[in-house]
Amino acid sequence: MKRIISLATVATAAVATVAVALWLAVPAGASPARSAVSGTEHFQLMSTSATSNTASVIATGVFTAGGVARSGTPAGTFVFPAGSFKVAHSKGTGTQTFNRKTCLLTVNLKGTYKIFGGTGRYAGISGSGKFQLSSLVVTARAAGKCTMRPLAFQQIGKFSGPVSL
């Protein structure tokens, strides 16, 4: 039985051979050049500890990642699996109220931030924006009065602004 090979089959085989040869020619670990990407990035931080210097952080927008926000002076660090970067923020302005009947502290702050000093996938990152911080704290009661010892603590931070990566 005589086998007939079509021109399309030969062309497909040639393209596959060239693709494999190009793939094999790329050194292990090499990645294609990354072009700059920019847009709006959103970060949400959440903490349930009044004494911890870390919080959970989720980033969405130009990139999506989950990690840890570490507080620091003069800048904190957002650490994700693919790298990290520094975040410096203003002191913030807003309101703070304490209800002596319910022992509830409420804090709402707004301010600005800047991103810099990236490592790994975030090398060269820059950006800035605005943040909102909301905290609720229920303090203990002793002898009928509120103490400064927190019984329950919840803090949510929302950062949003343009980034270039």
**Lateral arrangement of strands in the main beta sheet:** 1-2-3-4-5-7-8-9
The largest pleated sheet is described as:
8 strands, antiparallel, barrel
Helix share bin: 10-25%
Summarize the helix and strand pattern as letters: HEEEEEEEEE
Q: What is the tally of beta strands?
A: 9
Question: What is the CA-based Rg, rounded?
Answer: 26 Å
Q: Given the helix and strand composition, which structural class is it?
A: mainly beta
Number of domains: 1
Q: What proportion strand? A: over 45%
Features:
165 residues, 1 helix, mainly beta, disordered N terminus, 9 strands
Characterise the protein shown here.
- With 165 residues, this protein is mainly beta.
- The protein has one domain (37-164).
- It has one helix at residues 7-25, and strands at residues 38-47, 54-60, 65-70, 76-80, 83-89, 93-99, 104-116, 126-142, 145-164.
- The longest helix is centred in the first third of the chain and has 19 residues, at 7-25.
- It is elongated, with a radius of gyration of 26 Å.
- The termini are far apart.
In short:
The protein is mainly β and 165 residues long. The chain has one domain (37-164). The chain has one helix at 7-25; strands at 38-47, 54-60, 65-70, 76-80, 83-89, 93-99, 104-116, 126-142, 145-164.
SSE layout:
Layout: H1 7-25, E1 38-47, E2 54-60, E3 65-70, E4 76-80, E5 83-89, E6 93-99, E7 104-116, E8 126-142, E9 145-164
Antiparallel strand pairs: 1-2, 1-9, 2-3, 3-4, 4-5, 5-7, 6-7, 7-8, 8-9
